[in-house]
Specification:
This protein is mainly alpha-helical and 239 residues long. It is 47% helix and 5% strand. Strands 1-2-3 form a 3-stranded antiparallel beta sheet, with no helix packed on it.
């Protein structure tokens, strides 16, 4: 278990240890090993909100967006996807599931169905609307209701890993080092940028559609200027 945990993230270690302990309890219950052997599995320390959110600086996000081509179908599609991730902090699954009926052009709104399967209407920024419209004008003609499709035939909706692939391709082509290359890094980046520009945790929580305020609290750690005003010096520093 110790050797296996060396290659896992803290969250995955916790899952691995819990699964191993449950398996040992099953063996004890079925008489296949000695009683209380499940207690030999050590606990794995895991503290909620103990880590910093992984995010990109605002200028890196803007450079990634600006790097997408506006003349090719792939570039126009990828630009619209990145803008949805960066401006509205959507999850990859929410981008893939976005349908034509979810766009209210007259009111400038998008309907997003999140993890709780509860639809939420979000305001659509001008650049996001322009990018989606430019893509729809170039998009292949088909019967699919989903907005974003694969470029190569058959022109089906994006797959489970397609949005991550779009993000990873943009990061690799720009040649920047990032703490992650998936779609969620843009969600974290949007929250971190808003906090640093003075947005409240409640405002960020509403945009991210968090069910609990505790889920948003981790982003308070990136508000360096605000934290510096309330931070107390170490006792040694005031002597």
């Amino acid at each position: 278990m110790i050797e296996e945990c060396k290659t896992l993230t803290p969250a995955r270690r916790l899952v691995f240890v819990r699964a191993l302990r449950m398996f040992m309890r099953f063996l004890v219950a079925t008489g296949r090993c000695r009683s209380h052997l499940d207690r030999s599995v050590p606990s794995m320390p895991h503290w909620r909100l103990a880590t910093l959110p992984r995010y990109l600086d605002e200028d890196v996000v803007e450079r990634l967006i600006a790097s997408r081509s506006t003349t090719t179908l792939t570039g126009v599609r990828d630009l619209a996807v990145l803008l949805l991730l960066a401006r509205l902090a959507l999850r990859a699954g929410e981008v893939r599931g976005l349908c034509l009926r979810d766009i209210d052009w007259a009111r400038g709104q998008l309907r997003v169905v999140g993890k709780l399967r509860r639809p939420t209407w979000l305001p659509m920024p001008q650049d996001v609307g322009d990018a989606i419209l430019a893509y729809l004008r170039m998009r292949q003609r088909c019967q699919h209701e989903q907005v974003f499709l694969c470029i190569q035939a058959p022109h089906r909706p994006l797959g489970a890993t397609s949005v991550r692939g779009i993000c990873q391709r943009a990061i690799d082509e720009l040649g920047v080092k990032t703490p992650g290359k998936g779609a969620h890094i843009f969600r974290h980046s949007t929250a971190a940028t808003l906090i640093r520009h003075g947005a409240t945790l409640d405002d960020v929580g509403r945009l991210l559609r968090h069910a609990s305020r505790e889920s948003t609290a981790v982003y308070a750690k990136v508000a360096i200027s605000a934290l510096s005003r309330i931070a107390q010096p170490w006792p040694e520093a005031v002597r």
